[in-house]
Records
---
Amino acid sequence: MRTEISELGEFALIDRLTDTIETTHPTTIMGAGDDAAVLSFAEDNLTLLTTDLLLEGVDFDLSYFPLMHLGYKAVTRGVSDILAMNGLPTALTLSLGVSSKLSVEDLEDLYSGVRHACGELGCDIVGGDTTASVNGLTINVSVVGTVPRDRITYRSGARENDLVFITGDLGAAYLGLHLLERERRALADVDNPQPQFDGYEYLLVRQLRPRARRDIVDALAAEGIVPTSMIDLSDGLASDLLQICRSSEVGTRIYLDRLPIARETHNLAAELNLDPVVAALNGGDDHELLFTVPLEMQERVTALGLGIEMIGYITPASGGAALITPDGEQIPLQAQGFRSVVSD
Amino acid sequence: MRTEISELGEFALIDRLTDTIETTHPTTIMGAGDDAAVLSFAEDNLTLLTTDLLLEGVDFDLSYFPLMHLGYKAVTRGVSDILAMNGLPTALTLSLGVSSKLSVEDLEDLYSGVRHACGELGCDIVGGDTTASVNGLTINVSVVGTVPRDRITYRSGARENDLVFITGDLGAAYLGLHLLERERRALADVDNPQPQFDGYEYLLVRQLRPRARRDIVDALAAEGIVPTSMIDLSDGLASDLLQICRSSEVGTRIYLDRLPIARETHNLAAELNLDPVVAALNGGDDHELLFTVPLEMQERVTALGLGIEMIGYITPASGGAALITPDGEQIPLQAQGFRSVVSD
């Protein structure tokens, strides 16, 4: 018997592979199913562990992805999962499968991006594994973090009437990828290609060098705010918010006209005949944080500034998950993750 | 400027990339440079972290490597690094880059091997990342473990006159690989190939399904023995013992006629015109433990049984590292790691 992976679909594949995995170790508080695993080694703090794999040709294209940025982004992707548990990163390991088409200087560029991101985020590089690859470049980042026991935030804690907040803006990374792909195609046969990115630099930064939102987790801690639930926006707002709903057994309503979309995202979407709202909902790769807090905390969260926006609220599960348009229409949210396969 | 990776060599590459990395986090006790990173989150115990990348076409060949065994071996490789710090594994994450030539059933086989090894070793599977791969199968295993502070064993603690012990026997995994490669070549053009492994099953098991030596770490703990240094035998006895010498700033003498080599290893080496001692010294992939203890602990270690063998002793650094032949000749030990690139 042979079942094709494509036939099953990626969500179902992961469920099938991991569904019956039980954790038995007394130190394992939470295994798969949230942004990071939760381990208990100390009295006051919990230890967090997450891993992310990036493959050439799937997650990045080296023809337009500078290696320094790629190193930076690999760290962002790993650390964002720790932040989404309301924790801070402490240590990171880097596995590299290196094809011979890369030079030593290329790898130094990659490492310099990794170091820069780790420096910004207060995370040590503590080891790794470097192997020759006969295929493309392979990068795996594993990150360990910590969070005080009374501050840990799972996907499962959202409650009816909680408010839904997101940081930053949505869809820019996705449009940045479209822009890079357009220029690559346009310049495929050109000597000394000069891609045209004028006016869209912001979108490139969001795609090539997204920043993990440690500032948000620090600010929440400084103000003594603990979200009821939180997730890293990696697969797209729709998909990630549905994960919160599924884990918390709740529904949600979000307002279309509250979705924060940057001017550059609107502009390029118009130029490319794309719907910016679709990019915002399903674009993915934003690496912003989505979280919920009780209604009565609205003002305290808004007072944080930092570009945090309230986009909706939590309903009972029976209400389902929907987007409300300005004229009051309700459109069911559907998961259409941007990445080919979904990760924790 | 472009420096080829092959030009620099793999050891030098890793040194160049990681040499200037400093760790600054107060919880980071030890970063790169030992079998696992050492983190301090609790009063009594230290937390260990290690990562290992396995790539199709480099680390394994799916034409003869059953996926169930591959899953098992990936766990062995990761967990061995935790054991080599005298720690025990608690949690493991599994990243998979999956090519479409694999079916869902293939992945279930892989996972069943991972589960089986984790079950034997008392380690929970706590998460992962599954991604489509346009190239071959990619596996990354990250393992977290713990060790009491007073039992942690680094590579750097070997002292003059300490004795050198190893577990198991050497070179069998390497000969097992030769056997598999020989049959693959011989049967490349044959329908319904029937490889001939009679009498060499032991070598296949050592290559395809090596067992991580948790039993050794448990026995050392039960008897209250703390080695002065320890390392996982992954790159070959010569290379790994030289790591101990370098980290501990000592030299060593090991006796050729004390190297434990299985009868099957001798037999196949004779058949293939290979030197079994070279296989034992440089074969790699054994995943046994090499450790040192003070001279006065010899009897206590020997009394453990478990196939632990004393193969030599530690000298001052000025003595260098050498193999002593039965007629008293001294041959300098040289690192000739079997794996194409060296990992932690």
---
Amino acid sequence: MSNSGFDQWATAHRARVEAALTRWTPAAELTSGRLLEAMRYSALGGGKRLRALLAYASAEAIGASAELADHAAVAVEMIHTYSLIHDDMPCMDNDDLRRGKPTSHVVFGDATAMLAGDALQPLAFAVLLGAPATATGVVAATHELAEASGAFGMAGGQAIDLANVGKPMTLATLEEMHAMKTGAMFEAAIVIPALLAEEDESTLTALATYAQKIGMTFQVVDDVLDATADSATLGKTAGKDAANDKPTFVSLMGIEAARQYAQRLTDEAIHALPVHLNTQRLTDLARLMATRNA
Amino acid sequence: MSNSGFDQWATAHRARVEAALTRWTPAAELTSGRLLEAMRYSALGGGKRLRALLAYASAEAIGASAELADHAAVAVEMIHTYSLIHDDMPCMDNDDLRRGKPTSHVVFGDATAMLAGDALQPLAFAVLLGAPATATGVVAATHELAEASGAFGMAGGQAIDLANVGKPMTLATLEEMHAMKTGAMFEAAIVIPALLAEEDESTLTALATYAQKIGMTFQVVDDVLDATADSATLGKTAGKDAANDKPTFVSLMGIEAARQYAQRLTDEAIHALPVHLNTQRLTDLARLMATRNA
């Protein structure tokens, strides 16, 4: 993409979240084996940082500070990182490549990988609880993080995913699963800065609608890429969905219809944004979700 | 124990935390496999509920409401439950008996067990964030929960434990490990009601000291029981420490010296309690830590 300096903005903010993650992921190591090393191994140095960029873009849209956005961006990236570590483990997807590197359990062993994921969760909450905002805003934002990552959000979506491998799934169930598994944390990334800043209900609702649309776009495109791209480009193992007989938008709709669906969702997401906000980066990110190739 | 109606108080408050856990551990099941069932299986119907009793006793000591205490008690029991589920998994302690029942991964499989633990963490935070207290109190209490359960608390202690199986360990390192692994969450159980109620610094410090002493007592007695009791009495597999060549207070001090140490810590814990608080139940619980036989 080349519009309006988005690439420079994204690069700068990827560096910003990397610095904030480095600052807030402790490096000191006592007698604790390699726990902190494992936490940093997975949290730092990689990934598209889409959730962090969404948090920064949301903060810009409402005129909140970059410092406030740091806490939101780091919190959602830590939750995302823990979920990747656990998802990749042998008892789940048993994947050995992630972000172009060996997965955590391959490097540190299953027990330390599980603990590193376990310990990234409360660290995410601690970081968000330290956000420069009112106590009321912090409580609302932290509650959103808890709901989005839990049994009726990300973890619940993973459970549906797990329970349905190899089973027929309707498009409605597939969308419900992804709304929980991926969508809830996308929504958290976008809504948390607004909750911290105590934005009004109509702004929160509009941002949530935007988030739900781009979250679904992300997943549709993910399925398309899994079916069409190679592992080197993706930085993770490609073709796993078909190999695992997982229901996907591609298996239910076909590749072309899935691509068109992603475009329609993107248009709806951009349309949902309130005109009184500074929505340039949110608009850029919506387009990126639909056009990304990794 | 037969002093001052403690047994009735403990029974009533075990029932109280069970009811609150039942209320706040969702039962509705969508297409999510058995995730919620697995969360309830481990969270409900068992355990000594020591952490919950500590939260209720702390709330009584400072004159806070039982409703406030419910949120603290449920939050710490949910974190404790998640840690038990993950600890028992094959990649950790590989235990198949807990609270007299088959462990989660035995019943639900490794993937669902891991997810159930993962989902209990944010649920604990959500429950605490909903406590009937000021936003400032809620933020402070939730931050304590995050710190106590994370890399410098419970999860970090487990990592030290894991890294030191079969290695020689000094008494100082053993104490540091247990202060993190068990002590931090005991301290959270006791301090969280006081943080919610915005108690003053000297009260918080005194309660933290009490908590650290009884936390260590608990672990010393745990080691004694593992070496001397049978599995049926404990409701979990006995003799695992020696079988796994784990350093313990018993292996480092011997059984009699460990028992005396537990008694001294108990006296110090009770001595640390501020005289202006209503400390009857905290005193009872300190004695229970030292004299329990399961």
